[in-house]
Amino acid sequence: MKAYIKCIEYYLPADVLDNTQISVDFPDWSVDKISAKTGIYERHIADKEEFTSDMAVTVSKKLFENNNINRADVDFILLCTQSPDYILPTTACIVQDRLGMNKTVGALDFNLGCSGYVYGLALAKGLIAARIARNILLITSETYTKFIHKGDKSNRTIFGDGASATIISTDGICEIGDFDLGTDGAGAQNLIIKNGGARNPLREEKETIDEYGNVLNPSYLYMNGPEIFSFTSSAVPSLIDNVLFKNVLKLETIDLYVFHQANQFMLNHLRKKIGIDESKFYLFLKECGNTVSSTIPIALKNAMIDNRINKGTNVLIAGFGVGYSWGGTVLRF
Question: N or C: lower Cβ tally within 10 Å for the chain?
């Protein structure tokens, strides 16, 4: 049985952190330097009392209302997050209750970051193929900024908070193609929050300063930028080749490429290395930054609004990052 995306919506918190504010905290980084390096001008920050389930509920209600979706028809909830409300219970269960959805729905969280939306589509397609569900609500919701140290200028310039909601069903606006997925856990230490789990509980830690002037603390997000760049530069070109091969397509027959919106420098490097025409490469991070698992659905929604996606458009999506984890597929509109 084929699987389709029926509709997509997204939500960004009201509070905005722009480059001017960051430049005040870090005078050696001018507004122009930040925007030139990242392609990001502002990012949205979850309120102190706003958490993953709150954003998940808000974006799901928006999806139901804007697309005339009867929530009673949804029979499975997939929630991708690395910032759950609690260690347990499952945040998807909390969302099911707060949305007033049927008790017959299946619901689960899965812990992935930048590849999460692609993996969510793969899971949803599998549920439909196995006839376990017919209408899946796929939510991505992250509050990464709650785990970024105020003195970590590198990560503060890149990440923002946000959420998306997608209905995957047996009919819709685009067919979900075949997938290529990959994992390399050897890179786990290069994008990590070391404290807070069972292995390393939260505790007071001595802070250090790295060579770039960022404050490091094991209880906050750590990203080894050069290693992440090296991994991405190596893994993504092969990922694109494999996705094209599995979907019996060529580089030039894809109408639009929508990658995880990591940062503008990395994306342009990948585009040039793979040989993608700039006119076919979609960017949407200027006003929201890197929202982790939500970057691809946010970009897809805006590409549709911008009329970059229409009936007959082939779109290749690719996610890659923390884990290391990567995945891609083709959406046939």
Answer: N
| Prediction pTM value | 0.96
Tell me the CA end-to-end span of the chain in Å, nearest whole number.
17
Angle ∠(175,316,81) on CA atoms, nearest 5: 85
pLDDT digits (tens, 9 = 90+) for 254-289: 999 999 999 999 999 999 999 999 999 999 999 999
DSSP letter assigned to residue 292: G
Total number of residues shown for the chain: 333
* CB 164 within 8 Å of CB 300: no
Contact 7, 166 (CB under 8 A): yes
**DSSP H stretches of helix in the chain:** 19-25, 31-38, 52-66, 91-98, 116-129, 153-158, 225-246, 264-274, 295-305
Quick one: CA dihedral 188, 152, 227, 291, positive or negative? Answer: positive
The DSSP symbol for 98 reads H
The CA distances from residue 148 to 185, 228, 267, 307, 331, in Å, are 22, 17, 23, 35, 33
Distance, CA of 45 to CA of 17 (rounded, Å): 7
Q: Rounded to 5 degrees, what are φ and ψ at 178?
A: -85, 155
- For the chain, domains (ranges, CATH) are 4-173 (3.40.47.10), 180-332 (3.40.47.10)
Tokens of 320: 């890659």
Phi, psi (deg, nearest 5) at residue 183: -145, 140
pLDDT digits (tens, 9 = 90+) for 291-324: 999 999 999 999 999 999 999 999 999 999 999 9
Tokens for 84, please give them. 């759950």
The bridge status of strand 106-110 relative to strand 76-80 is: parallel
